[in-house]
Specification:
By secondary structure, the protein is an alpha/beta fold. The chain is built from eleven helices and 13 strands. The strands form three sheets. The chain has a seven-stranded mixed beta sheet, with helices on both faces.
Length: about 375
């Protein structure tokens, strides 16, 4: 820290230079985030001082949060859902499993408690295991990259406190057989958490019907991220519980605040992201989200059409706007696309594919340009596709 401060002009100049080093979303095909909607940005800037860690001071912002919970609960077939706004899927997943552990009777598991998750689960569940000292049991996937029900059943024992299902897996955008997992959870009297951080703002707005939410009796909690396909500002996540008792399982006393209890993982929380999320879900409504998702899906199928012209095909037919492509030497292809054309794509692990996410910032022109550059890279490799 300098003895004297910089001028406003120096600050602006330095920040502009730093911003200039960031990759623009127009070259990003790997991220599940995008530019937030202007309505969300405007709302965010109006609430930057609001601290939801002590929401007794910011009752208006707290009321907005309650309305967000009600709106998303209604979207996911439980208008009276309990929950709160988190920083995103990772925090939501940690808190959902923490609630499971806290509400499970210790005598019900004789040794270390465990949860069963798909092998496709987000890496946040590895953090869950480390933080909460819970054994993580990973169930294998079937040929369609959904979790194998038989594998899940084989991993459940007397120490299992819950299951996890994915509605829009990070690598492949696939949806697990959640209806079957709901039945298994009910049969074993254990919790079922659904990680719909990405898919929660996609699946309700596509034609294909996927049963994944509170309509299924065995689903006990859901993570959904407004800062992904919800077009809100970062960080905006939501954790919803079927039963208010599950939220109570996270209670901590806060004697020096204006409120006596917190249920959140973080203390200080952004009221700005609360306002941004309230603004965008009320501005767009279901009709607006349907249009946004439809546009992304149309571009996803346009991408597949153009890739077919150069002999590149997906590993599985996309369920949503996430595409995994079969290409030779995917790590090398990814590296060449970045170094030679400044494209940011990602890699899946098993199977090893090139991964693209077609977010609202993607255009047909971007896709045309990307396909040309990908074809040039593949042609230069001189390897059969």
């Amino acid at each position: 820290m300098n003895e004297t401060g910089l001028s406003g002009e120096e600050i602006r100049s330095f920040l502009e230079a730093s911003k200039g080093q960031d990759l623009k979303y127009e070259r990003v095909l790997s991220s599940m985030c995008t530019y937030p909607h202007r309505v969300a940005v405007e709302a965010h800037m109006g609430f930057i001082e609001s601290n939801m860690g002590d929401f007794g001071l910011f009752k208006g912002t707290y009321d907005l949060e309650k309305q967000v919970i009600g709106s998303l609960g209604q979207l996911l077939h439980l208008p009276n859902a309990s929950g709160y706004m988190t920083t995103g899927g990772t925090e939501s997943n940690i808190q959902a499993i923490r609630s499971m552990r806290n509400l499970s009777t210790p005598g019900a598991w004789c040794e270390r408690p465990n949860i069963v998750v798909p092998d496709s689960a987000h890496f946040s569940f590895d953090k869950v295991s480390d933080i909460l000292d819970i054994e993580l049991r990973k169930a294998s996937l079937d040929a369609n990259l959904k979790v194998s029900v038989k594998s899940v059943e084989a991993l459940i024992d007397k120490n299992t406190i819950g299951l996890v299902a994915i509605a829009g897996s990070t690598e492949f955008g696939q949806v697990d057989p959640i209806e079957r997992l709901s039945e298994i959870a009910l049969h074993n009297d254990i919790f079922l958490h659904v990680d719909a951080a990405f898919g929660g703002f996609v699946l309700p707005f596509i034609d294909d019907i996927h049963e994944f939410d509170f309509k299924l009796a065995g689903v006990s909690s859901i993570a959904i991220d407004p800062h992904k396909m919800g077009l809100s500002t970062i960080p905006s996540g939501v954790l919803l519980f079927r039963d208010s008792e599950q939220l109570e399982g996270l209670k901590a006393d806060t004697p020096y605040l204006t409120v006596s209890t917190q249920y959140t993982l973080t203390g200080t929380r952004s009221g700005a992201s609360v306002a941004a999320t309230w603004a965008i879900i009320n501005y767009l409504g279901k009709e607006g989200y349907r249009k946004t998702v439809s546009g992304c899906m149309e571009l996803t199928f346009y991408l597949l059409q153009e890739l077919e012209r150069i002999g590149v095909y997906p590993w599985i037919e996309p369920v949503m706007n996430v595409v995994a492509l079969k290409v030779p030497e995917p790590d090398l292809v990814r590296s060449r696309l970045a170094k030679e054309f400044n494209w940011q794509v990602s890699i899946t692990q098993n199977p090893h594919c090139l991964r693209l996410v077609i977010m609202p910032h993607v255009t047909a022109g971007m896709i045309d340009s990307f396909v040309r550059d990908l074809n040039e890279v593949l042609m230069s490799l001189n390897v059969p596709i």
